[in-house]
Amino acid sequence: MAATGPAAHAGTLRHNANVMKTPTFLLLALAASVLVLPAPAQAVEAGASAPNFLLPTAKGEPLALDKLRGKVVYVDFWASWCGPCRRSFPWMNEMQQKYGAKGFTVVAINVDKKRADAEKFLAQIPANFPVVYDEAGTTPAAYAVKGMPSSYLIDPSGKISYVERGFVDENKAPLEDRVKALLAAVRN
Fold first, then answer.
1. Quick check: is 136 catalytic?
2. pLDDT surpasses 60 at 101
3. pLDDT of residue 23
4. Mean of the pLDDT values across residues 93-114?
5. Which structural domain range is residue 177 located in?
6. Is-catalytic flag, 40?
7. Are residues 173 and 89 in the same domain?
8. Do 104 and 64 belong together in one domain?
């Protein structure tokens, strides 16, 4: 027979209080974890300072963006599986050839998890500009890259002048005009 009266009611309250402690603790733990999680990366846009990077070339030599200050730099994030990257590489080779001696450089940042995939791509479509590797993905995270290719035209002071998401053939001429304008400003 079940107990009735104040004693039985007090037992029920103690039981309910114990049950409530666990969810309250979980809610507090969840709230605390949200407070310490890093904020999602914001897309890096024109006018912002370009995040620096220090990444290895195929020969293992380090390449740092901040060492390219004074030049116009086209930073291109690419992957071997990226279809538009196959079209962008010949254009980047052409730009490097045309403007390299005038203070322009392309830096292509490969984000493949396996370097062998990138090497296979480069065997088919060689690069006449520096290629660096970021298997860990820290640099695309710093730039908040959402797709391949994503490119950032950086002025000689290290500020992003223009952002190109994807590679569209119709944008090649206007993008080349931007490069020429930045190079002309350096000479003046």
1. no
2. yes
3. 46
4. 97
5. 54-187
6. no
7. yes
8. yes
